[in-house]
């Protein structure tokens, strides 16, 4: 009954009728527990009945009924006051009107004819429905129309044409803009969209819906899209930025993906700046994916851009993804890698053997035998043999491939010593190497020299120091030992760290073990591989930028078994080397100053979209004097003139600069550092393309729309009846608003007090006249 009254009050208030509504009702809020009150009432009743019996024959018959009634009322008044009768009066509603915001999706995916009439697009239907809803909202509500693609803006729906549809769709930004913070009369959001969200992960949109709920703005999605069949031919590659050694054969691979086409022949071309190199012909089946690979052998060091392209097919959604570029940086000096091992184990032994076999890697290892004896091995003897150890006498002859050192000082004891390496790998129980001074040098080496620090078996210390912990992308808590299998994290192959023919090359590999529970830290960690434990998964390979360099954590013991597979897994025998060699080459291709180099220019990404700001990072060795800000010349393939950009310091990091090119036209670009030395890596390249996601991802995301409705407190509306939609939303606003009331004790009035005192006085007077019976 109370709920119905509340709804009536809010409904009348929303229609402006509050001034004609003098409704109030009485509520009871006892001051004492009900059992006690009943006991007091029983005692009073018994006393009053006794008085009735005692007064018989004493009080004259004509006066007795009046006296008994007055005694009953006078005695009941305290009992009534203990029940605390309270008047509840509704208050006038806050100023203003309830708000209904209509969010209209104006991204390119809405320009698809998949609704009732084939000639009518999603956008046409959405715009028509938005106008109908706006017309059905009466004047007691405030209404607002917001269109959105990558950005949200309030406009008239008739001012939006299909030619202006956006290239991205950001549901999160639209919901955040629509849900206002100060709407005391209530608000609701109508979302007319196909549910496609391609600016960041889908969880951003769900988080925005949760924020809308906290602001009292439920979202009511309306999906006006149906499933469509896309025809498209594309090229994909997981390794678009490669590093190779001079005269080392390099396999350049790509996947040709056909969607929606009948079987058809295609030709794939490999070309370089000076023309076509090789071609291959394929027969693609319907919804088929085939890999094509080319082998090149570079003769001289430098940066080479190779282009892989496939001939288009009639009727495909876009031809912008029929071509991709692969940047191959060729070096003539191998990558300097240092392995610091505190307690030799099979993992480190197999890692040393694997890295030693790569001609593009110059490996050194330092193994602690005891507190004052360290075995330093160079490339010539870097393979570890569990059964062979050097002698124990201090005056023993030193093998040219290894030597016994009393301390690691000569290897990692100075800044100049660390500059020989691009990657430092920390193995098991590495406390002996990580004193405060060494940690400071390592931090400076990573942050300013662009080095990469890799923890090969989880935490390198039994108790992780705070200084090292702040550098790493994960943190550990104590746990019980667990075994798990690894799997590639979602979309991580696009980083280019692992060149793989399969979707998940780690699937089916032997399990790993850990006794700790790692989890990512706040900041910018990126998970490349996880365990296959579902919701309880842990990060296996994680990295994050740290200054100019990167830090990486590889979790789990037992990875050596990946290099020693039984015969039935012969097809996966290269997985171990692909993981480690690919990871190290990927790190060096993105960052790091090589020995002899004073400057390195590197594009932040290989491919930018036209709505993104292109950026390149310049690392300058701290020993190089800079008389003026470095300058970079940017040129576009096909243009006669380039543009000179003055670099800016990247925050407070010494020796790190950024060249900001801004938003660029589509094309292939080359950036070159002006005034560089011949040994510097002074050239980088990248591509700029139009965003194509909105043309390829056209299937409606009804699951995301349902999640948005649930998390915001709204509901998905299946009807296209604008009047019914408006009625449902208005009722939701009415139901969600609390009733503002004023509570006043019924006895807290002057006339009530006078009446009670007058009644008690009258009772006393009557009893006095009858001898105080």
Protein architecture, described:
The chain crosses the membrane at residues 34-53, 65-88. It is a single chain. The chain is an alpha+beta fold. 25% of the residues lie in helices and 30% in strands. It is built from 16 helices and 37 strands. The strands form eight sheets. It has a ten-stranded mixed sheet with strand order 19-18-17-16-20-21-27-26-25-23. The longest helix has 21 residues, at 34-54. The chain is elongated and about 130 Å long.
Short description:
It comes from Stieleria varia. With 773 residues, this protein is of the alpha+beta class.
What does the secondary structure layout of this molecule look like, with pairings?
Blueprint lengths: L1 H13 L10 E4 L5 H21 L9 H19 L2 E6 L8 E7 L16 H15 L5 E7 L3 E3 L16 H8 L8 E7 L8 H13 L4 E5 L8 E5 L4 E5 L4 E10 L4 E9 L2 E10 L4 E8 L5 E9 L12 E9 L3 E7 L4 H11 L4 E10 L2 E5 L24 E4 L3 H4 L2 H4 L4 E4 L9 H14 L2 E4 L10 H4 L4 E11 L1 E3 L23 E9 L5 E6 L7 E8 L2 E6 L20 H16 L8 E5 L3 E3 L4 E7 L10 E6 L6 E4 L1 E2 L6 E7 L4 E7 L9 E7 L3 H4 L5 H11 L9 H15 L4 E5 L4 H20 L4
Parallel strand pairs: 3-4, 3-6, 6-7, 9-15, 16-17, 16-20, 20-21, 21-27, 29-36
Antiparallel strand pairs: 1-2, 2-37, 4-5, 8-10, 10-13, 11-12, 11-14, 14-15, 17-18, 18-19, 22-24, 23-25, 25-26, 26-27, 28-30, 30-34, 31-32, 31-35, 33-34, 35-36
Helix pairs in contact: 2-3, 3-16, 4-15, 5-6, 6-14
User: Which structural class matches the secondary elements?
Assistant: alpha+beta
Portion in beta strands:
25-35%
Largest sheet: spatial strand order: 19-18-17-16-20-21-27-26-25-23
Please state the overall shape, judged from the principal axes of the Cα atoms. Answer: elongated
Largest sheet: 10 strands, mixed
Q: List the domain count as a whole number.
A: 5
CA-to-CA gap between the ends?
Answer: 46 Å
- CATH C-level class of the largest domain is Alpha Beta
> What is the tally of beta strands?
37
- Rg of Cα set: 39 Å
CATH topology of the largest domain: the name is Rossmann fold
Give the overall average pLDDT. Answer: 82
Helicity level = 10-25%
- Output the CATH homologous superfamily of the largest domain: Class I glutamine amidotransferase (GATase) domain
- Give the second-level CATH assignment, the architecture of the largest domain: 3-Layer(aba) Sandwich
List the total number of helices.
16
**Are there runs of 5+ residues with pLDDT below 50, and where?**
1-22, 381-400
Keywords: Membrane, Transmembrane, Transmembrane helix
Transmembrane segments: 34-53, 65-88
Organism: Stieleria varia
Region (Disordered): 378-407
């Amino acid at each position: 009954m109370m709920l119905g009254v509340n709804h009536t009050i809010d409904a009348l208030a929303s229609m402006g009728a509050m001034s004609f509504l003098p409704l109030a009702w009485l509520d009871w809020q006892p001051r004492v527990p009900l059992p006690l009150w009943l006991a007091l009432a029983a005692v009073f009743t018994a006393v009053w009945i006794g008085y009735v019996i005692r007064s018989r024959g004493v009080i004259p018959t004509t006066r007795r009924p009046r006296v008994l009634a007055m005694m009953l009322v006078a005695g009941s008044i305290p009992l009534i006051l203990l029940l605390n009768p309270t008047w509840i009066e509704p208050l006038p509603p806050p100023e203003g009107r309830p708000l209904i915001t209509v969010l209209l999706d104006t991204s390119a995916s809405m320009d698809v004819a998949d609704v009732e009439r084939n000639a009518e697009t999603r956008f046409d239907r959405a715009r028509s429905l938005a106008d109908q809803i706006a017309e059905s909202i009466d004047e007691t509500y405030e209404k607002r129309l917001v269109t959105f693609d990558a950005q949200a803006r309030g406009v008239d729906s008739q001012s939006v044409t299909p030619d202006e549809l956006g290239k991205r769709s950001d549901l999160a930004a639209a919901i955040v803009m629509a849900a206002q913070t100060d709407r005391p009369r209530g608000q609701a959001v109508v979302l007319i969209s196909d549910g496609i969200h391609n600016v960041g992960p889908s969880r951003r949109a769900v988080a925005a819906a949760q924020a809308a709920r906290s602001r009292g703005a439920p979202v009511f999605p309306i999906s006006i899209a149906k499933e469509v069949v896309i025809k498209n031919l594309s090229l994909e590659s997981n390794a678009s930025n490669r590093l190779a050694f001079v005269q080392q054969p390099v396999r350049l691979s790509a996947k040709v993906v056909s969607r929606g086409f009948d079987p058809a022949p295609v030709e794939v071309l490999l070309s370089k700046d000076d023309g076509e190199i090789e071609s291959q012909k394929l027969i693609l089946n319907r919804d088929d994916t085939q890999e094509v690979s080319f082998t090149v052998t570079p003769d001289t060091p430098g940066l080479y851009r190779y282009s892989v392209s496939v001939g288009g097919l009639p009727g495909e959604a876009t031809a912008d993804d029929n071509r991709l570029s692969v940047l191959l940086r060729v070096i003539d000096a191998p990558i300097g890698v240092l392995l610091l091992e505190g307690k030799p184990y099979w993992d480190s032994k197999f890692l040393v053997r694997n890295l030693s076999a790569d001609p593009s890697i110059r490996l050194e290892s330092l193994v602690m035998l005891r507190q004052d004896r360290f075995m330093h091995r160079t490339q010539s003897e870097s393979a570890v043999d569990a059964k062979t150890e050097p002698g124990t006498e201090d005056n023993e002859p030193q093998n040219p491939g290894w030597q016994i050192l009393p301390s690691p000082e000569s290897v990692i004891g100075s800044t100049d010593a660390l500059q020989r390496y691009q990657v430092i790998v920390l193995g098991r129980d590495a406390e002996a190497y990580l004193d405060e001074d060494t940690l400071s040098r390592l931090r400076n080496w990573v942050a300013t020299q662009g080095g990469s620090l890799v923890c090969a078996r989880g935490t390198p210390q039994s108790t992780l120091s705070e200084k090292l912990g702040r550098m790493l992308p994960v943190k550990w808590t104590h746990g019980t030992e667990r075994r798990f299998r690894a799997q590639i994290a979602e979309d991580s192959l696009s980083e280019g760290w692992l060149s793989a023919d399969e979707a998940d090359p780690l699937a089916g590999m032997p399990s790993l073990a850990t006794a700790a529970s790692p989890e990512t830290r706040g900041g910018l960690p990126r998970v490349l591989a996880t365990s296959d434990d579902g919701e309880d998964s842990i990060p296996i390979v994680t990295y994050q930028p740290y200054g100019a360099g990167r830090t990486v954590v590889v979790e789990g013991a037992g990875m050596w078994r990946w290099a020693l597979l039984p015969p039935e897994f012969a097809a996966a025998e290269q997985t171990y080397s692909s993981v480690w060699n690919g990871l190290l080459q990927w790190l060096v291709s993105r960052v790091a100053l090589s020995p002899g180099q004073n400057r390195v220019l590197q594009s932040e990404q290989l491919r930018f979209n036209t709505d993104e700001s292109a950026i390149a990072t310049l690392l300058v060795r701290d020993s190089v004097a800079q008389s003026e800000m470095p300058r970079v010349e940017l040129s576009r393939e096909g243009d006669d003139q380039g543009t000179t950009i003055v670099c800016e310091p990247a925050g407070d990091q010494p020796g790190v600069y950024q060249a900001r090119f801004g938003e660029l036209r589509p094309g292939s670009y080359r950036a070159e550092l002006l005034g560089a030395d011949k040994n510097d890596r002074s050239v980088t390249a990248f591509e700029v393309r139009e965003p194509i996601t909105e043309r390829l991802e056209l299937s409606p995301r009804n699951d995301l729309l349902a999640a948005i409705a649930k998390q915001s407190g709204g509901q998905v509306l299946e009807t296209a009846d604008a009047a019914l939609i408006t009625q449902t939303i208005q009722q939701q606003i009415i139901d969600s608003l609390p009733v503002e009331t004023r509570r006043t004790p019924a006895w807290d009035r002057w006339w009530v007090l006078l009446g009670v005192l007058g009644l008690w006085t009258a009772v006393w007077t009557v009893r006095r006249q009858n001898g105080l019976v």
